[in-house]
Every structure is written in structure tokens, then in C-alpha cells.
Amino acid sequence: MVGFSMQPYGIQAMLKEGHRHLSGLDEAVLKNIDACKQLSTITRTSLGPNGMNKMVINHLDKLFVTNDAATIVNELEVQHPAAKILVLAGKAQQEEIGDGANLTVSFAGELLQNAEELIRMGLHPSEIIIGYTKAINKAIEILEDLVEEGSESMNVRDKDDVISRMRSAVASKQFGQEDILCPLIAEACIQVCPKNPGNFNVDNVRVAKLLGGGLHDSVVVRGMVLKSDAVGTIKRMENAKVAVFVGGVDTTATETKGTVLIHNAEQLENYAKTEEAKVEEIIKAVADSGAKVIVSGAAVGEMALHFCERYKLMVLKISSKFELRRFCRTTGAVALLKLSQPNPDDLGYVDSVSVEEIGGARVTIVKNEQGGNSVSTVVLRGSTDSILDDLERAVDDGVNTYRAMCRDSRIVPGAAATEIELARRLKEFSFKETGLDQYAIAKFAESFEMIPKTLAENAGLNAIEIISSLYAEHASGNAKVGIHLEDGVCRDVSTMHIWDLHITKFFALKYAADAACTVLRVDQIIMAKPAGGPKRDAPAGMDED
Amino acid sequence: MSLKVLNPNAEVLNKSHALHMNINAAKGLQDVLKTNLGPKGTIKMLVGGAGDIKLTKDGNTLLKEMQIQSPTAIMIARTAVAQDDTSGDGTTSTVIFIGELMKQSERYIDEGMHPRVLVDGFEIAKRATLQFLEKFKTPVVMGDDPDKEILKMVARTALRTKLYEALADQLTDIVVNSVLCIRKSEEPIDLFMVEIMHMRHKFDVDTRLVEGLVLDHGSRHPDMKRRAENCYILTCNVSLEYEKSEINAGFFYSNAEQREAMVAAERRSVDERVQKIIDLKNKVCAGNDNNFVIINQKGIDPPSLDLLARAGIIALRRAKRRNMERLVLACGGEAVNSVDDLTPECLGWAGLVYEHVLGEEKYTFVENVKNPHSCTILIKGPNDHTIAQIKDAVRDGLRAVKNTIEDEAVVLGAGAFEVAARQYLVNEVKKTVQGRAQLGVEAFADALLAVPKILAENSGLDTQDVIIELTGEHDKGNVVGLNLHTGEPIDPQMEGIFDNYSVKRQIINSGPVIASQLLLVDEVIRAGRNMRKPN
Fold first, then answer.
1. What stretches of B296-383 show up as alpha helix (H) in DSSP?
2. Would the keyword Nucleotide-binding be found if you checked this record's keyword annotation (chain A) (predicted)?
3. What is the reported pTM?
């Protein structure tokens, strides 16, 4: 403890021990920028189709091999408060759109890096913020302008249309495999797209990962794939009605504790018989209602199972509440709470339920072709868990892109064409400004160059050459010219079919600019002593999700 | 030392040491907070023990979150927090004012003045300033139909010191409208009737005012409607779930039939209650396609939910108690505690009820209500710290509007009051004071200038130039404030910069009191059981 009589002057003396206090331009602002720069250099190399994978091992010793920025920054457990703001921006983007997190983090990092140069030039952070705010507003305006004509209305049920919009998002995660993945994702999405596409629910497209085989073996199932076996011996059923019971298939029980009261041996014998009779009665009633498949949300009693077998009922157990709800949606069944005779209306219908063995695992495949907009499943095959995880993330991104395009189908040119055009037009805009903001706006414009530069660098091309030729093309009015990564030349994106969704870009840019401005606005950091708690290197428990 | 005789372990600071410790602490705290002041103040980032981030410009939040240890600083911080409790704003100003009073006093004390004399001067100056404030304030007539423009100006002034301009301007309307919405004539305003709800979604500028309620949970049954129009709302506090009896009861049965009967009997009383609600629904919804929504404070168990869902009723369980109050104010009807005598009169009404799902979280919106006396400010933001920042600001904004309505007066802002009061003290009051207390008045007057000075400093202006210009204008009889963009004097009335009367009054009242107390300390003693903590 600080000596009582020797109270030093200043804030440090007033705070509890272990506090850290950083303030001023050098100590706070520049350090923050530095931290954010470090973060964005990590994510940057993963940007785009040729981005590199990262191997991240989190505190639970789980291994991730991915180039999905959202996963990387999530598992990095960033400690630095300023860098955390960038991470949060990336997460917000992931939650809002489900794609473009890398763009958000990398672009925000680039903005801050350029802000640092401005600060060294002598500009005050508040002036930079004003400039950046002006620039982002202008950039959004320009972005509206770049929207491909005629793309406002699209048929979200047309596979080719969907694929063309989804391609770049999937390609940035799984380059070279987008031609296999996109049709699968598109098919799955279109199957479950409701009448009003705005209500598309990401949850309705499921992914089942099965080890073994290769990506080429992946298929789309209209219905569900449950990773469990059937309970009884009946493993296959076709054109069947389904009854769903949430509360389990077993004898009923009272909430209050019940005790069987038996006076003599006769009663003992009879008791078992009445139980049996009761269960049989109910199971028979279920069977009589026309149901051929029983789905239970909880335990299936031995005795009940016996009677189910006898009445040729197939029994499935789905213990997850949400999975059960999805099952109800797939089949159109109404979940009944207690085991009782179901109304004909409450029964669902499946085309087929069958247990199959795929790659050593038994799965139950529930198909319902007529179900309309219910649930569809993409069955992914791959040789290792990490490949499957990465494929799943690509599918997630694709599905999220589909949702985004259902809401707003406008597209802008991809392959860095949009970015270069934004950079070019913003620069022109900056020349018209008179105040100190013009420098900030110019830097903002310059930041856009990061994207083609990184794309080119990641593909092993000469970035400077590419950028200059892009600028040349754009200056001559070809606003749709982007990079062709395989050939290493500039080409019109409409010939390459690389389009990005306007809405993804819009949110990514906005979140990035917001995060950058927030970091710049901070001029003092007061850090409390890190709280105690379990040490990070010790296993932190079972809370893996 | 006499104390050392009594307790050899005690630590003592005496005379000038004690005084200087206090002065240093006050100045130190002022240094920390002064960059926050005003619309051009900067943001502080607070990192909690668990690594959580908080961004703030609000003095009150900062004082609460910083773990201050120095005893003097704690005293000042408490005063500032009390300031926030009574008036909702002005914490930073309080700390700065106290710090400045101490700083001014230091000068005089170093020249050999006795603190007591200064304190006497403070007292006189305080009384004079309060009188001056009464004259200076701009009365506002509130009546039944308050002047919205003036309320907006006050709210804007308060919000701009907490958030950036564009967002502050947007929130201004929201805040003013929400207070006017819950205001009932002849009754004090209860700000709790404005529900502040947040969603992690979209951008901060998507924050909006919902005339009605937003509940942070959804219906628990998959078959209930997600969206319903023209709804009757039943607000109730009735348990619709099976409850175990208090005594330890058990059932005895000897065959399965008996058990089935018991299972049925067990649920009967709950089912009866549910049935009564369904009957009411059938009564009011017969022959039209209106909907029926139950919002229950207690639980509803799955079998009851199932029954309600089959009857086409939307049911929400475990609503917050406060929301029950708000619901009745927003939708009308009354909250019922029993289903025995349900009548259609108990029901409220909402034009639209819908559920919004965000990831794992569900929200239920009750909108388009008739004649609401409760409303919700729905804060949106991409991340938690943005939301927290807006939340704090909204709370302060609400308080500012409420204060204005209650004070029926406002004070010109932008430093105009401080400069005017200082000129009044120096030019008029000082001459009427006898003896050395004059110096106390002078110190007080100079301390008042701290606020405009720091405002100027935070905007990157030259403080001396600004003060000279402002006092010059005031001597000519013009009441002017400071234009933070140019450093020129402006008329706050024209620009619409108004502060709360009660905030200013509280600052003038509490600042000198605490400063006097600190000045009059001549010994600081630390003795007691805990002082020997291991280092």
C-alpha cells in the first residue's frame, strides 16, 4: 500500500492497487491503434479466396483450422480493450449478416493504421473522426450508386440467380470448391424458402457432418438427418404418419410422489397386469389412429417399447427440444405432451424414415418431399473433423448470404471492383472539401486499396501492378473491373460472375468505420486489476459449445 | 505527539500536510474528470476486472466504476454521486467546481490566510450566488401543454455532453416524447414508467421510441402466433402451473386406473383456471377475428400453454413485475390476481403484438396502444458498450426533461451563468463584505470560471482569450456563452443551450459545503484495526 503520509499527486494514487491508467495521445491513442493493427494483420492474410488458413488452439485445446475471420477472432480471446472493439464489430457483422467479418476487422484496422499517419502529421483525432464520418456517409452513397441495375428484384427460388450471388461468399471460405458447395446450399435454401422470402429462417437449413468420403459425396436431404439410431428393431418405414410425444413414451406419473399400495399377493400380480393393460391400451390407441412412427422427446420405457414393436410402430428418440421442434416442422406434426391417443390432425407425415449406416455412423434419415417449406439438411462428407467444421462454416456463410439476399437482393461488383471504385470516387470527393477533413477523407479512400492489395498479395500477385491497372481501368469508366485471381489480370466482373451483396458491404463498412471512430475517440483508459478466477491454462471446465 | 503516546501505530498528518493532501486529492480528481466536460469532451475507456469494456463520458459512471482509494477523493466522489441522485446530471461540474475551489484556496492559504476566513467567504458567496441564480433563471410555464421546444433544447444540451452530436439530436426527440407520454397532470412524473430496453442489433442510430411495451421474452409454445393484430390484453398474476402442496403429500394407488385418475385430478384445478380464461376469450372474440394475449407474471406450465395455444391464445409467462404496471398504463384494463371474476372490462387493448427473434433472444412488442401512459425506449447498438453508453445518456436525458418540467425554469448554458455569476460576485457582492472574507468571495468567484475555462480547453481554444472576451461582453451587459467551435461569444438563448435549474442549484449548494469541510480539516489520523494489513 502506498505510504499514507507520502500521498503522491495524481490519479494513480487515488485508485486501488493493480489499476492501470493510460492517457493522452502517445500512451492511449497510438497504443490502441497499434493493438488494432496487430489484430488486423492476423485476419488480413485470410481475406479472400486465396486467404491462408489459421490454426488456432483455444483454451479447451480444441483445434480450429479455418480462414473464417469470425471464428479466428472469437477463439483468439483478445485481451487488449481497443482491439476488442474491433472484435466486437466483427462479431456484430457476423450476427447481423453472417458473412464479411474479415472485411470488417481488416478494414477497421486499415482505417486506424492510416489514422496513425494522420496523427503523426499533426491532426487531432477529433478531426480525423469528423473526416471519417463524412467519408463513410459518402461511401454509403456511392455504394448505392454502384448497385448493379436490375438486381433489386430477383427470384429467390431461381437456383442460378442464387448461386451467382452466393458464389463469392462461399468461394472466400472454400476456394475451388464453391462450384460443388453452392448448388448444394442453394438447393437446400430454396427448398425451405417460405412464401414470403423475408421470413426465411436460417435455422431451417441444417448441416449434418459425417466423417468419411469426400466433398463430392455430399448431398442435400429434404428433411432431417438425425445422428442417432431408432430405438426399436423397426428401422425403416415409408409413407408413414407420425405421432410426436414430448413427455416420453412410458407409463404416466403424478407430479406428487406416488406409492403403490399393495395389501396381498393377489394385488401384486394384478398390479403388473393393470400396468401392462394400460400401456397396451394407449399404444394400441396410437396405432389405431394411423400412426406408424412414434417420436419421443424423453425416455422410452421398456414395456412401452415392447408394445410398440408388437403393433409394428417405429420408435425414434429425439432428446433435444429444438431438434424435436424442427422435427415437428418437417413432418407437420403437433407435439403432444402426454402419451395418449392423438387426433388425426395432430399427426404428421413422412415420406420415409430409415436408418442408414454412413461412414460407420448410424443415422436416421427423415425425408419429406411434400412438406413444402420445412427443413432441409446438407449432409457434408469429409475426411477430418476440422475439414468438416470448416465446410460447415462455409455452408453457414452461404445460408446467411441467402437470408441476406432474401431481405435485400441488390448486388455490387465483387473482386475488389467496388472497393477501387469507392476509393477513386472518395478521393475525388476529398479534393472538393476545404477543411482539414480532406486529409482524413483521402486516407479513408486510400484504406479501400487494402482490399485489392490483400487479395492480390494472398494470391501471390504483384499488388502494386494490379492496383495501378485497376485504377487505370476505373478512371477510363469501366467501373466493374476487378481482379481475376487465377489469371492475375484485371477483368470485368460481369464476365467472371463475381458479385457481392450490397447489404453485406454496407454493414461491414459501417461497422468498421464505427469501430475505428470509437477507438479514436478514446483518449484515456482506466483498467481495473484483472479479477481472479481460474487460471486460463488450467482446463476451464466442460462449457464447450 | 500526543496521539503517538496513545497508539504508537497510528499515522497522523497534521496542519498543512493534511490540508495539502486534501487539496491534492481534489485537484487530482478534477484532472481526471475535466477532459469529460462538455460536448467536446473526450471518452474514457474503462476496463473492468473481467476484461469487460465500458466507454463513457459521464462523470457519474466514471466515478462509480473507478475504484477510488484516497479518502478525500472518495468524499468528493460521493458528493458528485449525490448530485446525480438528486438531479441526474452535473457530476463532472461538481467535481470540477470543488477542485477549483480547493485550488483557489491553496493560493490564499500559501500566503498565510486561515482557512476559516475563506470558508466564511464561501458561505457569503454561496448565498449570494443562489440569490443571483433565482434572478438569472429563465422561467418556463409548464401547465397542461408544455413548450416542447424548450424541453428539446434542455434535453439536447444534456445529451450532447454524453454522446456524439448526430445521435444526441436523434435521442432528443425520443426522450422528450417519452416523458410527455408518461406525464399525467397533477401527478409527479415516474420515470420508471419509461421502459428502457436494449437489443444488440443494427446501429446506434436505429434507437427508437415504441409507444407501447417491449418485453424481453417471447411465448414459449411453438404453435402460438408470432404476430397478431387487434389484441385484447389480459394482464394477470395468476399461477397457471401445477404447484406442489406445502405439506409432504403422497399418493397411494394399487392399480393403473387409480393412478390415471390421480394424474387427472392433480391437474384439474389448474385446468379449470385455464378454462376460465379460454371462456373469456371465446366471449370477447366471438364473431370477430380479434386476438387474445395473456401476459402473466407467474408461470404457465407446458400443459396449460398447450391448452391456451389450442384456443388460439398467445401467452407470455414470467413477466417482470414492473412491466405489469407499465402494461396496464400502456394498454388499459387492469391487472387481475384471480381468474374468478374475469370480465371484459379487465382487458387492455393493443393494435399489434409481435415477436422478434434475435439469435437466441426473443422480444415481444406490444404496439399501437390507445392513449398510452407508458412507453419504451428501444436502444439498439452493435455491441454492449455502445448500448451501455446510450442507456446512461438516455437516463440523464430523461432526468433533464423531468427536472425542467418540475422546476418550471431553465438556466442559460454554455458557461453564460458561470460568467454572469462571477461578475456579479466581483462587482457587487464583494464590495458589501467586510474584512478578509472578501478574499473568500473572490476565490469563490474565480472558481466559478472553471467550467467555461475547461470547456474552452477541451475544444482546443485559448482559455485566457476566451475568458477575457466573455467577461468583457458581460461587463457590457450582454449575457453570452461560449461557442465551442469558434471560441467567439454567443447568445445561448439563440442557440438553444439551456441547463437545468436544479442541477446548477445543487452544484452551487453542495460544492462549497464539501470544499469548506475539506479546508477545515487540520488532522488526518489513520488508526484502527485494519491499518496493519500486510503490505
1. 302-310, 321-331
2. yes
3. 0.78
